[in-house]
Amino acid sequence: MARSATAPDSGESRTAAIRRLARSEPAAAAAMLAGLLADRFGMAAEGIVLTADRYALNSLSGVFAAGGARYFFKFHQEEGEAAMGGEYYRARLLAEAGLPVDQPLFVSAEPGEQVLVYARRDSPRLADILRAIDLDPADGRAAGVCRAEAGLCAALLAVYRRSLHPVTPAEAAAEPIHRLFHARLTDPQAGGGRRYPGGRLAAYYLGRRVALPGAELDWDDFAARRWRINGVAHAEPLAALFDAAAARLAPERLADAGGVTAHGDAHAANLWYEEGPGGPRLTLYDPAFAGAAVPALMAEIKPTFHNVLAHPLWLYDPAEAAARYPARVRLRRGWVEVETGCVPTPVRRALLGVKAAALWRPLLATLAGRGMLPDDWRRVVRLGLFLCPTLVMNLRAGEGRREPAASAIGFAAAVAAGSPPEDGDDLVAAFLDAIDPALPEAAARARAAAICPEESLPP
To answer: In this predicted model, what pLDDT tens digit does every residue of 368-389 receive, in sequence order?
Structure first.
């Protein structure tokens, strides 16, 4: 198919060029997008408006009109995606499995040219509703959000149980979800395979300086230090967690828990929130990483982190988080000590409680019952959670309006997700206990209460 006259000629893909231009030259980005839509779908797009979206960390969305109809578009773009295997944007897969998913009207799945076009909706996203509740606890929609989450969890669990099946290492490795995790740690090698360290890990952190409130460290020094977060010591430093993730989250190794049909990236900005006669409900969209053999332990990692542990504000609104939640940082020999009040709000903790009880615990029980739950499942979940914030964007100060305080909060949240506490308790430890199928029901309920105490539940 012929390229648009506005296509880049430097080897950069069109989607990469459009995302880059959108930040500084939106008119040029819109013109290039119009060429992409014309080439891929024969659409004469008019009135293109690119969305200024805090949640579009690796994607771009917006609206346009064509032929008298209104449309919404979105695409996800990763570095080096043209060299990655696996099918992109399996749009029908989730609907055929029985999940509530918005079906795109037009799909281009070719890496570098990928884009989904939907009929335009006026519904808010779950991300927008949750942010409003975070900032105004009297908002009144928290209970509805939790009911909607419970409904989605029931649908997801049914599909995961129905679709769970043994997969070979090659089948597990072919799934595009690894672009969100292991591929961001590594670089492709000419003879095949991938080299660690590389990818975003190298681009964001290796050889860089890290600015904290009142101090600045070389990456190697910073990454070798252990952490004490709000008084709780954690066992492993950043460098050890990245090393462990590169080994244990290697795509072939994740075949041990089987594969399921999953969206893989169903965070709150990929969920429409709708009120209706039957109550509030959530609808999935943007299935860039959907698959039929998604490693079962990875299917819910992204929404678990990004809908709960990435809040309030520090990942998506770092400047506002720094203003609202100061962080006190002390450097001691071999340690980073952080004190901060930036912890998940009651509605976020309530969501985590719903997801623990309605999805994670029964899913792990199903895996255990079929002899497919690895002994180190906690390690896999923690390492997946750890990679979510560290590789979705650069957490160092000075990147993306991120101040030293917000950087410290971000790295602390990543370590707390990835490394178990040594001498105390925290939210992630309570969550993992609550979903452990080997824990008696009463004990699991007690740990669930630590996630979301009854007095903080929405009415």
So the answer is: 999 999 999 999 999 999 999 9
In angstroms, rounded to a whole number, what is the distance separating the alpha carbons of residues 178 and 115?
Answer: 19
Give the pair of three-digit tokens for residue 339: 């004190």
Residue that is written with structure tokens 């773009």 in the block? 77
- The rounded distance, in Å, linking the Cα atoms of 126 and 23 is 24
Q: How far is CA 224 from CA 235, 236, 336, 392, 410, in A?
A: 12, 9, 10, 21, 17
Cα angle, residue 113 at apex, residues 386 and 295 outer, rounded to 5°: 35
CA angle 171, 173, 175 (to 5 degrees): 80
Mean pLDDT of 253-260: 98
At 133 the three-state DSSP class reads helix
CA dist 357 → 237, 350, 451 (Å): 30, 11, 11
Whole-angstrom Cα distance, residue 318 to residue 278?
37
∠ CA 439-442-446, rounded to 5°: 90
| Cβ contacts of 392 within 8 Å, gap of 6 or more | 57, 58, 180, 306, 315
**What pLDDT, on a 0 to 100 scale, did the predictor assign at position 292?**
97
> Nearest to residue 395, comparing CAs of 212, 272, 197?
212
| Nearest Cα to Cα of residue 364 among 354, 353, 374 | 374
pLDDT tens for 149-187 read: 999 999 999 999 999 999 999 999 999 999 999 999 999
Q: Report the b/e string of 346-382 with b at 16+ CB within 10 A.
A: bbbbbbbbbbbbbbbbbbbebbeeeebbbeebbbbbb
Residue pair 314/321 in contact (Cβ under 8 Å)? The answer is yes
Give me the residue label for tokens 């089987």. 258
Residues 338-369 have pLDDT tens digits of 999 999 999 999 999 999 999 999 999 999 99
Residue 57 has a pLDDT of: 76
Residue 459 has pLDDT above 80, yes or no: no
CA angle 298, 299, 300 (to 5 degrees): 95
Residues 30 and 36: their CA atoms lie apart, in Å, by 10
Does pLDDT of 451 surpass 50?
A: yes
> 10 Å Cβ neighbour count for 400?
16
Strand duo 226-229 + 335-340: pairing: parallel
The DSSP call for residue 254 is: G
Structure tokens at 214: 């009142």
Any idea which residue has 């994740």 for tokens?
A: 254
User: Which residues of 123-208 form beta strands (DSSP E)?
Assistant: 187-188, 194-195
H-helix or E-strand spanning residue 340: strand 335-340
